[in-house]
Amino acid sequence: MAINDPIADMLTRIRNATRNKAKHVVCLNNKVCRGLAQTLLDEGYIKGFEVEEVQGKSGFINIDLKYGPRGEHIINEIKRESKPGRRVYTGVADIPRPLQGLGISIVSTSKGVMSDRRAREEKVGGELLCTVV
After folding, report:
1. CA neighbor of 40 nearest in space, from 72, 11, 4, 68
2. pTM for the complete prediction?
3. Would you give the DSSP letter of residue 116?
4. Euclidean distance between the first and final Cα of the chain, in Å?
5. Rounded to whole angstroms, how far apart are CA atoms 44 and 2?
6. pLDDT band at residue 12 under the 50/70/90 scheme
7. Residue pLDDT, tens place only, 74-116
């Protein structure tokens, strides 16, 4: 079965795994999904990830999920903003700040996939991929 939106598939897998209190989740590997995983790691929402290459195919990303000291969710909500049917582009001044800066927005820019804070530092806008709270 072909997946039309690999970003939404990755976010749904993470959302479902955190609801089930799973320790790991396996997602499909591509450049944007690796960038999303790296951004989540840099911002402290996941413990880590590793890319598993499969010969002749794109492979998988194994993501280690993170929970609080009493088992509470670190990722409470992860929402896809820009979709294949409705792309959402934003300038650097218009990048949203979820929960007044307590959450992050992930933006795909010309300099790669990055969080809203880093995009403001680098003064670049782009496609708003998702928000994480």
Report:
1. 11
2. 0.95
3. H
4. 31
5. 31
6. very high
7. 999 999 999 999 999 999 999 999 999 999 999 999 999 999 9
Residues 6+ apart with CB under 8 A from 107: 90, 95, 113, 114, 115, 116, 119, 125, 126, 127, 128, 129
The DSSP result for 32-99, as a single string, is HHHHHHHHHHHTTSEEEEEEE--TTS--EEEEEE-B-TTS-BS-S-EEE-SBTTB--EE-GGG---GG
* 8, two tokens: 């939404």
Burial of 109 (0-12, 13-18, 19+ CB in 10 A): middle
The Cα 133–Cα 102 span in angstroms is 7
Structure tokens at 98: 């979820």
Tokens of 103: 């959450």
Q: What are 122's two structure tokens?
A: 């680098």
pLDDT for residue 91: 98
